[in-house]
């Protein structure tokens, strides 16, 4: 595992100290593991405070008491589950039209999985083909009005998945990846249609089509995300991807400096200073600080925190 750079260690320590009482500040910070899960890297840090010991897990950053989670892995699993739970809850708050737009292919794909779970006869496996075909049509409809489509000499029909899939491949990928996605679009569609018409369909046939359909949906989703997020930033000196924004407090000048820093070679961009008064202009900071703690970690030990007087008491 790569060494912990000074600014990385400081970011973790500042985060913990921001949440801990003055007599329980952070000392030793060690990175114990890093794991990429569903496209996000979560680093786990072991933080020794004066009286307590914590796991801090990143992206998004949160902390867990080691008396609650003796093993780092337990905390990581809880962290990921919590993230999925919060994402699901915020998804449920989307307006119905938006939700429909974002999840239509996945919802139809889930229908296909449900059919598969109950399937026993050839016609059930054929139905899996129909559901997968529906999922692909929904996928084909998903980006028809995206701005990256640009001008088209002639638009395919709305439900023409092969036609739209080929356009998506053209717009989102180059060279071999483009050819690969075009072939996936073509061959996956053919598989779903063949399954639909196969009166001797077996569980193996249906499983293969399910896998192929799920793979195509996630492949296109990944290409769209890459297009909208852009390429990941790299260090201008050594080309490492370990570039972070670093925030350094400046008590003397009553504010903070922000710069980009490379954890691999130590390169740093010019520091930009912002004063606290500028930063908190128009926010409700004082009201927030005076309110009861309602964050996730505030809630974990509600019963034990009596010695810490609450602002609302
Ligand atoms: Zn560098």
Mean pLDDT: 85
Strand order of the largest sheet: 1-2-3-4
User: What is the CA-atom radius of gyration, in angstroms?
Assistant: 25 Å
| Main sheet specs | 4 strands, antiparallel
What gap, in angstroms, lies between the N and C termini? 46 Å
**Overall structural domain count:** 3
| Percentage of residues in DSSP E strands | 15-25%
Shape: elongated
Q: What are the segments in which pLDDT stays under 50 over at least 5 consecutive residues?
A: 94-102, 302-313
The chain-level structural class is alpha+beta
The helix/strand series, from N terminus to C terminus, equals: HEEEEHHHHHHEEEHHH
User: Helicity level, as a percent range?
Assistant: 40-55%
Q: Label the CATH architecture of the largest domain.
A: Up-down Bundle
What is the CATH topology assignment of the largest domain? Four Helix Bundle (Hemerythrin (Met), subunit A)
Bound molecules: zinc ion
CATH class of the largest domain: Mainly Alpha
Alpha plus pi helix count: 10
> How many beta-strand runs?
7
